[in-house]
TrEMBL record:
GO CC term, one of those recorded: endoplasmic reticulum
Lineage: Eukaryota, Viridiplantae, Streptophyta, Embryophyta, Tracheophyta
GO terms, biological process: endoplasmic reticulum to Golgi vesicle-mediated transport; Golgi vesicle docking; intracellular protein transport; membrane fusion
The name this protein goes by in its record: Vesicle tethering protein Uso1/P115-like head domain-containing protein
Domain of life, source organism: Eukaryota
InterPro entries hit by this protein: ARM-like, Vesicle_P115
Amino acid sequence: TVNLLGALHTVELLLMGGPPGETGKDTSKITNQTALAQRNILDHLLLLGVESQWAPVALRCTALRCIGSLVLRNPQNLDSLASKQVGEEPHVQPALNAILAIILRTSVAQEFVAADYVFKCFCETNPNGQALLASTIAPHPSQGTATHGASSDMPFGSALLQALVSSDVNGDMEACCRASSVLTHIIKDNLQCKDRV
């Protein structure tokens, strides 16, 4: 665990690109994002941050923060995350759905913050990604009869909507607040997504 945390902290530093105010920081950041993505680091980060619920919280949180920093303002990495699948058959699901499930279900505040950071980075200056997520917001056919908590086969937007509109009888105010945070990233600075929602 200590070795993995050390490696992830190194990745975090590389993805920052350098100290604030340093000339060429953005170029260094993009170069590092590209180089790390070419070495399939996203797969490893998803394994540690999303698929390995046995891993210590600090490790999962650091991996999630690295995912956010890897995709921030990087079109190729954004597309890669949007198309990634996690899990094993027959429980394969889109990576973004799995990260949303972490947000809605975790009992650890740091893990919520780290997973929310992934959506913040995914949506920032990414109107296509915002539109992709907003386009899935619709009630799920089984939503009225389902027990609380999104199932892994539920579309992203349906799971988000279920958490947003849960009542005190069947719902959870904390999950509703967390879903609201994700929704904020989806509609921020995007009039089309606001209209869709």
